[in-house]
Amino acid sequence: MKSGGAPRRLEGLAFVAPFLLLYGVVLIWPLLMGIGISFHRADLFGAREWIGLGNYATALADPVVHQAIGNTLLLALLIVPPLTALALLLALALNRATRGAAVFRGIFFSSSVLSVTIVTLIWRFILTPDAGLLAVAADALGREPLPFLSDQALVIPAIAITTIWWSLGFPIMLFLAGLQQVPADVYEAAALDRAGRWTTFRHITLPAIRRTLLLVVMLQTVGQLQLFGQAQLLTGGGPGGGSRTIVLAIFEVAFGRWELGYATALAEILFAMILVVTLLQYWLVTRREDAG
Amino acid sequence: MASLALKDVHKSYGDTLVLDRVSLEVAARELIAFLGPSGSGKSTLLRIIAGLETADGGEVWLEGRRIDALPPGDRGVAMVFQHYALYPHMTVRENMAFGLRNAGVPKPEIDARIAQAAHVLEIEAQLEKKPGQMSGGQRQRVAIGRAIVKQPKLFLLDEPLSNLDAALRTRTRVELAQLRQRVDAALIMVTHDQAEAMTLADRMVVLNERRIQQVGTPMDIYARPANAFVARFVGSPAMTLAPATVMPGNDRFARVRLAGGAEVMTRVPRNGLVDGAPVSLGLRPEHVSLAPAEAATLQAEVILVERLGDRTFVYACLADGLEMIAQDIGSSAVRVGDRVGLRIDGDAAHLFEADGTGRHADAAT
Prior knowledge:
The complex is a heterodimer of chains A (292) and B (365).
Chain A: H1 5-37, E1 40-42, E2 48-50, H2 54-61, H3 63-94, H4 99-110, H5 116-127, H6 133-140, H7 152-167, H8 169-180, H9 184-192, H10 197-208, H11 210-225, H12 229-234, H13 246-255, H14 260-291
Antiparallel strand pairs in A: 1-2
Helix pairs in contact in A: 2-14, 3-7, 3-8, 3-11, 3-13, 4-8, 8-11, 11-14, 13-14
Chain B: E1 2-13, E2 16-27, E3 31-35, H1 42-50, E4 57-62, E5 65-66, E6 77-80, H2 92-102, H3 107-121, H4 136-148, E7 154-158, H5 166-182, E8 186-191, H6 194-200, E9 203-208, E10 211-216, H7 218-223, H8 228-233, E11 240-246, E12 253-258, E13 263-269, E14 278-283, E15 288-291, E16 298-307, E17 311-318, E18 323-329, E19 339-344, E20 350-352, E21 358-359
Helix pairs in contact in B: 2-3, 2-4, 3-4
Domain ABC transmembrane type-1 (chain A): 69-281
Organism (chain A): Polymorphobacter multimanifer
Main location (chain A): membrane
């Protein structure tokens, strides 16, 4: 080309520079700094002492951290698969051009616009054993109300259900967008090919929305491994740390105990966990795609 | 026995009537073209036969079995979609096998049918490819292959050539003509291209305004269009319809006077035509020729010349503003702006009554 590569490239760079600068300052730089801080004994007031992998060693031996990692993984496991399946089912049911479907799309999405504060308030009213909605229902059936938020065995499922209810809207929208990419005539061809409902779903719909499915699972996994607000506001991590998640633990270490170095080390561990899990998901799905 | 029979099929979307009591019989192994402009109801009719739409009333019979209440897959029809509707994530082989597997056809038989169809359609080398890796023409072959392997009693083709470029279209037209010799089933194709319909179909069904306008062989429809719509829609360039009045007389055939004053003696029997009644004189380009002034019926000015090599179409404007298309030899020297004489071949002219009904030259004499 006659206009020359180098000046044009500089021109292009000038256009993206403002964004890159901001991105670097508020994201990349803190990320690198965080890694640096995690090798120090540091507090929020600026004291720094190099201790190498000391924080990481502490974390590996810390029963609180073990419990938080266990809670977080269990929550992700209890939330992501049912949430994905439920969102897909609802999207399939709502994927039509009727007015009723439009109304229900709005209803199902409405929970997503609420802040976590409102969501936990609502679910507190439902879950609380004294006069909560479920307690009233249990009472009407002549049974003892269950202490959802104060029983070690019930608190994780309770937070999972709250989160599923809150998070349903966005995956439904993603699935709907994916479903609408499938041309109608492909379904008609399948009808002429004697494909029943299940066959059509299994062989036409599912392969067509495979990428969307991967996106939803990855986004939800990333999101739920960072679950914080619901646990903090519903239970404060209790009872006995039974609902303390990793991010809640980081929060407590950083802003309760002022141990910034240890908190960033925990954050780096979470970062690595998320990276491994999502890459694994991506690899599992795309590997099958290449083979098939 | 008729292969397919439609009886009083009608359909509305809300208050909008899209098919008004359509009846039709298709013979075994016949190739029928549904021809009509957009919105004429031709695609809806095809989809009702396939079971993709439900008729509000009427019956659809295929080989002695009433099929209009059956789901699409149980009707014994196969369809080639306009945009092919191949399953994108399946290979060509899987695309063709899908319907057979759902129908419970044994595996060896599926393989045999696919092998045969692939051989006929020359897509053996593509069997393990996915549709996304193929050209439009190849995809169409796969779509046809997917229909053939089902060994249906009736093939339905929705605008089969509309997505192909001009060269491929002509080739595919020839291939479709050959294909139908090999399959033991009737074929119905929907098209808005009259050349496609004329070249391929045994009979054409011309649809417009929700109704069948005429059913007949291509030549029958071309030579004896039932009404003014059919006359204009079939044939390219379109037939000229010149306003005229029936002149009084005792001849066996009608003589008409054009709005500009010229008189044309036709060979359309005059019985039934009222003296002085307004009619349209229908003239195909090949029945209007350029002539020296003394032999000409009309004088006109040339406004457009289309040279096709073997012949030339001359679009001429009469003194009263009427546009008429004449045909001239390929080497015609006529140019835009020339004043020319037009000679009308009254023996071949058609007359259309005020309601559009066509009357044609008496073939017997």
